[in-house]
Amino acid sequence: MRKWLDTLYDGAAALAALFLVGLLAMVLLGIVSRQLHFHVPGTDAYAGYLMAGCGFLALAHTLKRGEHIRVTLLLSALSRPARRALEIWALGVAVLLSGLTALYSCRLVWQSHQFNDISTGNDATPLWIPQLSFALGAVILFIAFVDEWVLELRGQRQQLTAAEASRNE
């Protein structure tokens, strides 16, 4: 199961990297098209879609690598049992909030598809298509938080060292 989850997080990160390359391509295409006096419709919208997708798809991988910003000042002042209780509580809240985000983002995709919602720009993209990356990233983040929570409950979660924690603050 661990190998499958790590592959999921790495796959989402690789997809985020592809979205980042696509974002670069859209920005460069917009710049070049302005310099050469021709217009490619939708480059700004697609750059925005790719940026949102890149951000959300990278969240789980970032969480699992310990790169999210954490406030360790409070945690370092607590005793080990109190710190563990706070970690379990915080991860439980994160599971709840990320689960709600995943649920409502999937619901948004479904409703956009059902209502045939399209972008208001001149590209007229069906909005459920770019919203899929947001929903997928939110679902994978939810899975990552559940993973972290279960690891913490079992006492198997890796703790950051002081040097690793300081680079994130």
Q: Residue share in helices?
A: over 70%
Number of domains: 1
The geometry reads as elongated
Described by strand count, sense and barrel closure, the largest sheet is: none
How much strand content do the residues show? under 5%
Q: What order do the SSEs take from the amino end to the carboxyl end, as H and E? A: HHHHHH
Q: Report the mean per-residue pLDDT as an integer.
A: 89
Give a count of the beta strands, DSSP E runs of length 2 or more: 0
Poorly predicted runs of 5 or more residues = none
> Which structural class should the secondary elements be placed in?
mainly alpha
Q: What distance lies between the first and last C-alpha atoms, to the nearest angstrom?
A: 31 Å
List the helices and strands and how they pair.
Elements lengths: L1 H34 L7 H22 L7 H6 L2 H35 L13 H27 L7 H5 L3
Helix pairs in contact: 1-2, 2-5, 4-5
Brief summary:
The protein contains 6 helices and no strands. It is mostly helical.
Characterization of the model:
- This protein has helices spanning 2-35, 43-64, 72-77, 80-114, 128-154, 162-166.
- It is elongated, with a radius of gyration of 19 Å.
- It is 76% helix and 0% strand.
- It is mainly α.
- The model has no long low-confidence stretch (mean pLDDT 89).
- The chain has one domain (2-166).
List keywords for this structure.
about 170 residues; mainly alpha; 6 helices; elongated
